TrEMBL record:
High-level lineage: Bacteria, Thermotogati, Deinococcota, Deinococci, Deinococcales
Native source organism of the sequence: Deinococcus psychrotolerans
Pfam families per the UniProt record, alphabetical: YgjP-like
Designated name of the protein: M48 family peptidase
Listed CDD domains: M48_yhfN_like (cd07344)
Residue ranges constituting the YgjP-like metallopeptidase domain according to the UniProt record: 27-225
InterPro entries assigned to the protein according to its UniProt record, in alphabetical order: UTP_pyrophosphatase-like, YgjP-like_metallopeptidase
Length: 235
């Protein structure tokens, strides 16, 4: 067998997708989840039965992350009555209501002024932002072992930046994170909170991110694939 080879675990599906197998000179068995499916990384001589059991043991974890990746990306389109609005991994149905002054949520619907749908919907998301962002950032900041204290959590509308952290301990998150699955919001919150301990992107910083949010790579991958669509939605 060559030093590295790719095959599949025949007949094995997770989340409806086949499981790829990549053998190499590595010593341990590992698993990677992407939007395209699962890849098992294994030593050359590891028995297939053991690999199948490894996947089964990880199935619930893997399917949870596949669902995050496979959530339909937002599509830039004009807002109309009946539009589906993403909200932290769930969806709201937009209802255009004449003579309404401002948007308001009723169960799984968002009622908004028919005369000014886009601005009203955006204003509603921005109103939710700090109430949702603040406790999430505080949660990760409280788990830091060192670093400066968190002084404030603020909302940002800065184009091209999902978040920031200043030397003064101010963390800002983009309101459009509310359009992403909640795992993505938690990743960005942990990412910025970790800067309270390490105001850089050194190995020590990424070790802190991993400690705060161990599965950050999956959320990071979702943001790389779907983030541009979020920034363009309704703009």
């Amino acid at each position: 067998m060559p030093p590295s080879s790719t095959a599949s675990l025949s007949g094995l599906l997770v989340g409806g997708l086949p499981v790829s197998l990549r053998r190499s000179q590595r010593r341990t068995v590992g698993l990677k989840v992407t939007a395209q499916g699962l890849t098992v990384y294994a030593p050359q001589l590891t028995e297939e039965a053991r690999l199948r059991q490894f996947v089964e043991d990880k199935r619930a974890w893997a399917e949870r992350h596949l669902q995050t990746f496979q959530q339909r990306k937002p599509v830039a389109a004009p807002l109309t009555d009946g539009s589906v609005l993403p909200f932290m991994g769930h969806s709201l149905t937009l209802r255009a209501v004449p003579n309404l002054k401002r948007a308001r949520r009723l169960h799984d619907e968002l009622h908004a002024p028919a005369a000014n749908l886009r601005d009203a919907v955006e204003a509603w998301y921005k109103q939710q932002a700090l109430d949702i962002f603040t406790p999430v950032v505080q949660q990760y900041a409280a788990r830091l072992r060192k670093g400066r204290p968190l002084s404030a959590v603020k909302m940002t509308n800065a184009s091209g930046r999902w978040g920031s952290c200043t030397a003064a301990g101010v963390v800002r998150l983009h309101w459009r994170l509310l359009l992403a699955p909640s795992e993505v919001l938690h990743y960005v919150a942990a990412h910025e909170a970790a800067h309270l301990a390490e105001l850089n992107h050194s190995p020590a910083y990424w070790a802190e991110v991993q400690r705060l949010f161990p599965e950050y790579r999956q959320a990071q991958g979702w943001l790389k694939e779907g983030g541009a669509a979020l920034m363009q939605l309704w703009s």
